[in-house]
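Quick illustration, no need to memorize.
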Amino acid sequence: MSNDFTVDSLMPTAEVQRWLASAKLDNQPEIEQTSRVRLLADFCNARGESPTDMIARVLRGGEEDGQYEIAIKGRRELDAAIDAWGDDLGVTLHQNITAGNVLRSFFIHNGVQMQGRPSL
């Protein structure tokens, strides 16, 4: 996958479809789904990494028994990257936190347990 991530390129992926279904976002209006996936695309473009690669760096194992372990260092790095990305958005703190929590929701619904900043 190239480093030019878009809503159209991410929407059909298994990870995005899992997120939308698991978070019950697939019942939301298309504009709501698109706005969330657009944030994910922006984050992926800023990182130069696909969602699949980011998840794979944090989740270890699973090949033999389907059980994964969380790479703590990888999760911390991903969490810090989300915060840094949000800080660079040039928006209010509330909007920053909300955008970060949208990204965390994606990762949570794909098996990466995280907790973001408290909402304001």
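The chain has six helices and two strands.
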